Amino acid sequence: MVRVFIAVEPAKEIRERLEVAGMSLRGSTARLTLPTADQMHITLKFLGEIPEVKIPKIAGALEKVRGAPFQLQAARVSTFGRRVIKAEVTDQSCCADIAKQIDGLLLPLGFPKEARPFSPHITLARIKEYAPDLQEKTDALCDAEFGTCMIEEILLKQSTLTPRGSIYTTLARVKL
What we know:
Elements: E1 2-8, H1 12-23, E2 31-33, E3 42-50, H2 55-62, E4 70-80, E5 84-90, H3 94-106, E6 121-129, H4 133-139, E7 145-151, E8 153-162, E9 165-175
Antiparallel strand pairs: 1-3, 1-8, 2-6, 4-5, 4-7, 5-6, 8-9
């Protein structure tokens, strides 16, 4: 069994700027988990633990996604409730369109459609224990701009959980 998800990744320069922004939250007394630049992505669909034999079928389904490369902007920091601090993504709804296609393409393979509305974002921090001073740090980043890039491929990624955090491995790349 492997833990997998489908994602797109912003350009390395943007992910590095996002990592620096995430590190600026460390001055808070909140307990945070901060992803590194190499871990930053936009999840299109989380599949969870699946048998390895399904990977070729999933990769084949992703080949059927229709879409062209698109421009993505990462800017503005906000929160998802009290658990996640995120950078918002602007992309003319391209990620949402691709996520919807993926839902339909994977349904015959036994993966249910997402019940929640799709909200593209890049996680800057996961909040393990909230502290009020975190709000000030987050507010300081509310108008931050991290850059614009072209998204040209969809990635099928494996997530290996370790005590030091997740390690992501790309299993398949599909050009848009």
